[in-house]
Amino acid sequence: MDLLPPNDDMTANPTGASTGSSTEPMESRQVMSKASLRRAQRLQEEKLGLRPKRPKKPHTAYLYFLLEQSPRIRAEHPELGMSQVAKLVGNTWKNVGDRTPWIEKAEQDRLRYEREMETYKASQPAQKRQARNPYWFFCRDRKEEIKRRCPNYNFGQINKELGRLWKALSEEEKVGFRALSDADKRVARAHNLRVEHEEAERKKKMIELLKVGTRRRKRGRKPKDKDDDKKDSKSKGKDDEIDLDDLRKPDMNLPQGVEWLRLLQSQKRKKPKYKRAKTAYHFYTIEKRKEVTEMYPDLKFGQINRKLGEMWKKVKGEERQRFESMAEETKAQAKARMEAQDGADSQMI
Length: 349
Known about the structure:
This protein has helices at 7-12, 34-47, 61-76, 82-94, 100-122, 134-149, 155-168, 175-219, 226-234, 236-240, 244-247, 259-266, 280-295, 301-314, 317-348.
C-alpha cells in the first residue's frame, strides 16, 4: 500500500512531487489517492464489524454446473489436474441441452444479490455533500419548461439554453435563487458536521479494536529463552498500551485523521500460513505463457507479460468462464484451509 506524504509537504507542494535534490526515500514521495484511502477504511471497518460486508456477487449457471459436476469427475478421474477437469466440464456444458435447473439457480442467486445489495446500500453511512449554487435551483425550475417548449432539444442544447437564460436574468431576479442556495448551504453544513461526527466515532471504535488486537498478540507471544523473558518483564508496562502520539512519526508519511491506518501499519505482519488462491488470469498465463514464448522468442519477460495481458482482455464467453471457474474452485479450497488453520490457532489460544 502506498503511503501519503505529511501534511506540511502537501501544503507546500500539493502535487507531492520532489523539489530540489532531496535525499529522502522514495516511499515518502508516493501518494495514496483519496479513493484508495476511503476504500481501505471501508474494508477495515467491514473486517472489524463496524459496517456490514458487501454481498457476494451472484454465480452464473455455468458455475453452478461446474460446482455440481467437478466433484464427480475428480472422483472418477483422480489423476486429472484442475485445468483438465475444468476442460471436461466445459465440454460437457456445451453438449447440455436443457440448462433450466442451473439457469433457475443463477436467477435465484441474482435476486438474492439484488435484495442484499438494497439492504447493504441502505445501511451505508451518510456521505458529505456540497451545497447547491443558485444556478442549480434555476435549472431545476426552468428545465421542464424548456423541454415542453423545445421537445427536439438534446441534453447539450437544453444546457446551452439554460445558460443563456441565466445570463439574461437581472440581479433582482436572481435574489430568490440565491436565497434558496444560502438555505441549502446551511443544511449541507449541518449534514456534513453530522457525517464528520459519525466518521470520527467509527474511527475511534476502529482504533480501540485495533489496540485490543495488538495487545492480544503481544500477550500471546512466548519468549524464546531466558534473556528474552527478562527483556519482556522489564518492558511489560510499555507493551500493554499503545500511544498514538508515537505513531505520528514523520517517517509514517500520513496526514492527520487516519490514526487507524498508522496503528494498522505499526502492527507487525506475519507471513501467510497458507497460499493465496490463484486468479483466473493466473491460470490463463500458466496455460498460454509457453505458447507466447515460442511465438515471440525475442520478447523479454515483462513484454511477454504485457502481451498476455492484452490477450486476456480479448478472452470472452465460455473460455473466460473456464478460467474463472478454476479460480473459484481454488478460492474455495483456500478459504477452507484458512478456516481450518484459524480453528487450530484458536484452540491453541
